[in-house]
Sequence to fold (258 residues):
Amino acid sequence: MAVTTGQLRQWKQDKRPIITLTAWDYAIAQVLDEAEVDLILVGDSLAMSILGHQTTLPITLDEMIHHASAVYRGVKRALVVCDLPFLSYQESTTQAIHSAGRVLKETGVSAVKLEGGYPAIVETIAQLTAIGIPVMGHIGLTPQSVHRLGYRQQGKTQEDADRIFNEAIALSQAGVFSIVLEHIPSDLAAIITDKLPIPTIGIGAGNRCDGQVLVTADLLGLTKKQPPFAKSYVNLREIITQAVHNYAKEVQEKNFPQ
Ligand SMILES: Nc1nc(=O)c2c([nH]1)NC[C@@H]1CN(c3ccc(C(=O)N[C@@H](CCC(=O)O)C(=O)O)cc3)CN21
Ligand SMILES: CC(C)C(=O)C(=O)O
Ligand SMILES: [Mg+2]
Fold:
């Protein structure tokens, strides 16, 4: 059965953790979906982990659409969400509707994620949800603001924590179906999670969120540099290197093909 936003909300009530991972192409998406990942995010972090950029800022809406289309073709069960990239939605509500509309029309995915909880973005998100586009929020560390925030943990001072809490409430009222909480103190994430009727998905936000998300390239050990909160469950760099060496050896020794 396909996962819906309503299902995610039910899982929050049932205290059944929501398993989320990122994906960037058909093959990875198919594997994750068959492993019963609930929510698959076409994250703009692919700009860094897959395309080799220094930040997430350079990736374009056309590139995100290209990746999201491939991911969608690999998925049968999971809910698929696509990040709107830097400057494809911040200019105006009209721009956001146009970009989100293109993602839904051209890829098949069912929802978009926008970074930020400041008043203008809350207004834009309210407009998107009003016209029937499911939106996921993303607050705390928002990597598209790297030049202002760096990659430091957010919400450390009481003032900052209060602001993030209020952003979470505002986004929920604007109709988001879920919110990513990135790199904030565990206690703050727990307070937000308890207050909101919608599920929180944490990354570097402690274990009291309604679900967790990890960049799949980090989980697989494909990235050379990882955030302090990421975890690798396998070292694919090592495994791939070994396989390539085995292949090279057999070719050199004329043992492949037989
Ligand atoms: N592979 C990958 N995994 C991610 O989780 C991820 C990306 N890429 N790209 C987009 C953002 C960037 N993220 C990051 C990257 C680095 C830190 C990090 O190193 N933080 C340190 C130092 C911060 C500093 O002072 O610059 C920390 O201690 O918080 C955190 C989050 C999370 N996201
Ligand atoms: C880490 C998740 C939340 C993300 O936004 C991304 O991968 O781009
Ligand atoms: Mg992102």
Q: What stands out?
A: The pocket of 5,10-methenyl-6,7,8-trihydrofolic acid (ligand 1) is lined by residues 45, 48-49, 56, 143, 150-153, 183, 215, 217-218, 223, 226-228, 230 (CB under 6 Å). The CA atoms of residues 9 and 171 lie 15 Å apart. The two ends are 45 Å apart (CA to CA). The chain has one domain: 5-252.
